[in-house]
Structures are given as C-alpha cells and as structure tokens.
Inverse folding.
C-alpha cells in the first residue's frame, strides 16, 4: 500500500507540474498579442491625428470668432395704444458685423425674444391680435422664403455673395416673413402659439434678447440685448 501511495503521489505531482507549465506557456502568446494590438492602436490613432492636422480637417470643429453688435433697435406694437403703436415694417433691428470670421448666411440662424405681438388669421375676417412673450426665429439669414420687398431690398449688398462679413450690416424687419405662405423662413409665436402671420413687433421701452446660432454645429455665436426705441420718435 505504501509503494502504491508513493507511485500515486508522484503521478499526481507530475500532472500538476505539467498542467502549470501548459497554462504559463499559453499565456505568453496571448499577452504578446494584446500588447501588439495596443501598439497598433496607438500608432493608427497618431497617424490619423496627423492626417487630420495636415489636411486642415480640424477647421470644421472650430467655432467662428466674430463680433456682432446691435447698432439700433426701434419699433413698437402694431396693435397698441397711440403712445406705443408702430407698424410691423417700422420694427427695425440693425446688426453690424464688426470683425472676425465671415458667416455663411445659409447656415446661420437667429432668434429674438421679448414682449411683442403678432396677428392670427385674416384682418377683418375673424383674425385677432396676439400679445405677450414673443419669439421670432429666422431659420437662416439668406433671402430664401422671405419678403423680397423688405428683407432682400434692405440687405441686397450683404446677401449677394452668401456671406456676412466684417463691415457689413444686416437689417431685420417685422415684415420679413414671406407674404401669403406658410413656408416662410421667419417664424413667430406669441405665448407659445405658432399659428400667426409671422409678422412681429416689440414693445417700445422693453428689452429684447437676440441670439445668433451656427446651425451646423448648433453653437451660439453671439448673444446681445437691447432696449427698443419707439419708432415714431
């Protein structure tokens, strides 16, 4: 029995030793493969980064540096008291590009918020005035789907090359929306109601906030505030 136990113990130890050597031997190429993949990943990432830098592709990820200011802001409510009444076309905001990158008009949008009014329906045929928290959204700053007699006429020089560049002005008007169409690129809602004529006016003496947005990167490029001066003065 003693001899059998010795033979069994030797056999067990031999198997254990052999098994341990096999696992160790198998782990060496596995670790080597992982290290090789990590090295290849680092090299590939560095090469791709170098390619983007040399090709100028990083430009697409940089925000334009611009300086846009409100030169003047005047208007009044189209339907208000005699002391504050002004037509939609008398609501004018003049913006000036004072320096920095040119802005592509097709990919630049603009939002104005303040206390104002618009109209819903047809004048004299069941229409009504809407007053309150007014939001005006220019989906882009090109001349497409806007009133040619207002927006295009006032901004012809700025619009001609498709870019708003340093030194150029942009004039916004309360009648910039396309007339007689729901497909206007100027949208107006009052107190959350979007079914309006898309014309707008802001109360004289109140403050408006204007935001310019890069629609491709969805980034705010400029944010300005101004007090509306009465257009009749």
């Amino acid at each position: 029995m003693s001899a059998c136990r010795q033979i069994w113990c030797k056999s067990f130890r031999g198997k254990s030793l052999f098994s341990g050597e096999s696992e160790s031997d198998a782990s060496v190429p596995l670790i080597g493969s992982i290290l090789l993949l990590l090295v290849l990943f680092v090299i590939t990432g560095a090469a791709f980064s170098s390619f983007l830098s040399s090709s100028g592709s990083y430009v697409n990820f940089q925000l334009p540096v611009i300086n846009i200011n409100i030169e003047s802001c005047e208007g009044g409510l189209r339907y208000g008291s005699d002391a504050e009444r002004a037509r939609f076309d008398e609501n004018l905001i003049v913006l000036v590009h004072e320096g920095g990158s040119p802005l592509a008009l097709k990919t630049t949008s603009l939002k104005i918020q303040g206390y104002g009014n618009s109209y819903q329906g047809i004048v004299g045929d069941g229409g009504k005035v809407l007053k309150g928290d007014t939001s005006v959204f220019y989906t882009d700053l090109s001349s497409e789907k806007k009133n040619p007699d207002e927006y295009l006429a006032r901004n012809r020089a700025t619009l001609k090359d498709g870019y708003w560049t340093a030194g150029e002005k942009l004039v916004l008007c309360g009648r910039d929306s396309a007339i007689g169409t729901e497909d206007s690129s100027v949208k107006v809602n009052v107190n959350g109601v979007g079914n309006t004529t898309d014309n707008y006016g802001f109360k004289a003496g109140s403050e408006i906030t204007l935001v310019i947005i890069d629609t491709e990167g969805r980034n705010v490029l400029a944010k300005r505030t101004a007090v509306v001066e009465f257009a009749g003065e």
